[in-house]
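Below is how a single chain appears once it has passed through the pipeline. First comes the sequence as given, then the structure the pipeline wrote out for it. We keep one example in the README because the format questions we get most often are answered faster by looking than by reading.
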Amino acid sequence: MNHPALHPQRSAAVLINLATLILVVVALYFGKPVLMPLALATLLTFLLNPMVSALCRRGLGLALSVTLVVILVFSVLGGMVWAFGSQLTSLVADLPDYKQNIREKWVDLRRAGSGSPIERIRATWSELRGEIQLIEGEEKRQAAATNTAAPPTNAAPAEPEPVPVVVRGEAEEGSWTIPTALGPLAEVAATAALAVVLVIFMLLRGRELRNRLIIVFGQSRIPTTTRALDEAAERISRYLLMQTIVNSTYGLAVGIALYFIGLPYALMWGFLATLLRFIPYVGPWLGAAMPILLSLAVFPGWLHPLLILGLILVFELFSNMLMEPMLYGPTVGVSEVALIVAVAFWTWIWGPIGLALAAPLTVCLVVVGKYVPSLAFVPLLLGDEPVMSPAVQFYQRLLAMDDTEASEIARQFGASHKLIELYDELLLPALLSAKHDVKNQELSEEDLDFVIDTTEKIIAKTAPGPASAPLADAVPILAVPVEDAIDELILRMLAQILPETVRLHILSSGTLSGELMEAIDEHSPALLCIGAGIPGGAERMRHLAKRVKSRHPALPVILGRWGLVHSKRRKDLADLTGIRDIASSLKDARNYLTQFAQLTPAEPSAPRLLEPVVRN
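Resulting structure:
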């Protein structure tokens, strides 16, 4: 039980966490010149480190391996950037040659739009705007006529106001100057240079950096820190490598297709498609829009633009639906909604570079949150793993009185599981949770009735009758629910999964001990099953078992203590009732009763030769 004096401490902890979060965001925002190159270098290190490790395993030294990898990778990137720049320059020079095609496309679009709803709306708006301008002009003329009336004879003549003279410097004559143009370029160059230097030193000093991180996080937590670093490195390296393979394959396919179609500068568009695809959600659309727009200007007619659009859609679907699921697998670990929020956050913090780094940075946060207790909420909010088991989801929907979604959860679960698994792993835990909440007075009678009624409907839809009709010589078994309607419903579920060699007769949950004795005398069962879910019912179960044993000592009895998994509590219950045969699940009870039905006809006087499902 929580003491009221702890509430101020909780409030202080919440305020401290909120203040820490605000400080982190502020530090990320204002520390962009240093933190952004550091993050970029860290991700590049994750990407290049497998190649360095492979060269080291070949016998090359660490320094030589790092040098070869850095020279190779950045030479390839530099060559591609140079080729991209030269083709972009040629494209800008060739644009005036495409004026005629652009003009024809514009005429076609205007013709297609004439008479359309959009055109009528535009014409109506033009008419309204003209009428509004006429009314405003008339009001201005009337106001001017009023203001130009003759002034009083004693009014002094108005003196002209002086006209201010503004002296403009040379820098203000135009908006473009060399310093303003070189400023952003210098910032990008400085960020790239710092990232390259950091990558080199991180690759060379990777082991030392790892050891320092372990000491920083606490030498006493070496196993946890080691697992966190290894998982982060493995997951992010694989994610970046697979993303590079997918994007490069996509860009290569786009470039080859555009080349054979005849679109100029196909190499540039393929390279641009590869780079832009690293940007989540927005990048693929930008990479597809640019060659499509150019095709509208280059080619006469509409065949080539539509062909390019269709090919890009095919390549995108192939990448998204085949290559990414096959190569990525479970490596990302971030939900789609969380990734969209992360994209917006990192773009706001670090601009376009943050947009490109959003996915791997979010993966890092999710991995770290799995091993740092104070950040446990991060994988809970951002991860893609289910946070609720199907049984919890089912019970939560029952509490919300949403029978439609609860039935859908049961249907989906039953489609991939056997009937006994549906009962044991979905319906039974929900019923036991309801029983627990009733004991704690957290569930009203109305809510309990809804839970029971909805579960009964699901059982009726799933198994409208017993698995098979009992045989004429089926073994008769009497079942008594100990406490309430939930216990009775669980026994009805048990009846659905029993074989045809067993005939189960279920008494009502309000059966008294005297009535139970009368029922035993009337039905002459071969075995008695006393069922009660936890919590509650232990004392009444003990009373019924003692009464039966004293009145019918030869009658075999099995206890269905649904949900009981602790071995000590099972032993205590056996000692308390004197009955050693205890089933904690419907599967256990079915197996026991099936075995009993097989052996009882052969040796009806020796039921103790049975091997019970659960025996201590």
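The first strand starts at residue 475 and ends at 481.

See the next section for the split statistics.
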